[in-house]
What does this fold into?
Amino acid sequence: MSATESPSAMAVPGIAGARIGVLTFPGTLDDRDAARAVRLAGAEAVSLWHADESLQDVDAVVLPGGFSYGDYLRAGAISRFAPAMTAVVDAAKGGMPVLGICNGFQVLTEAHLLPGSMVKNDHLHFVCREQSLIVENARTAWTNEFRRGQQITIPLKNQDGQFVADERTLDELEGEGRVVFRYDGWNPNGSRRDIAGITNDRGNVVGLMPHPEHAVEPGFGPAAAEGPRAGVDGLTFFTSVLSSLVHA
Amino acid sequence: MGRVVVEVMPKPEILDPQGKAVVGALPRLGFTQFSGVRQGKRFELEVDGEVTPEILAAAQEAAATLLSNPVIEDVVSVTDASAEVTA
It folds into this structure.
């Protein structure tokens, strides 16, 4: 572990033994950033390959962003059938924390771990910006160190980011408190009811379009009150899951 | 050689941003007759022998489980198009 990473590791004592898998598909882009976020939160990052059936006894799994299988057919549609995804679906149904970021969120919907789907942004353009979000649910495995109603800023970058579902599903998500994040200020892709992220009924599976793994270290994150590139709101996702593992 | 054609369209209630972009571009080329466009997908599934009822049933299952996502898309047709191949 490098000198720059050790202070964060010390900040979350007693959970250095946690192992968090980061699943790589052909075309995944953000697996290294996700692994780095895991290490900065104080856990061990375990690289998982889509063609492997074993999850190597990890305690949680991150499905990172990118363009798995080139988004062929539909974003996330082919990845869903990867051998590793069978193990992820089984583990998620058993309660293991799973976080899907961007393309990982798309994979989770195609795998039916989360409802709804993502279609092309309503304005058709690729979007890359520092996105303000409101935390709507601070009880999930990945958000328990946030406060409900808290405003956070993390990067957003996608082309197929418009969350859609039928009205009945949307009403269910709202009624059961399963909307985890809502876009704040501006809806960047036409998502129904400004939804940026959702969870399953158990709260162990969370998917969102914006990228927490890109806002985990001062100097490399979005602008914040502390200064330019100082934003580290994304780190709380990864420290939250460590807390949930400790208290599980 | 046989062929099954599967056609998939975005659900009517889902805004189709690609179709919207196409309908916006048509008048620029002078095509002012068209008030709406929806863009879908056509899959051609090839088989070595002829298209039996079992193969057609398998194509229907593939259309519902992989070729379309029922949250956002409808399978509008699964047809034996072998005649197109030999013609």
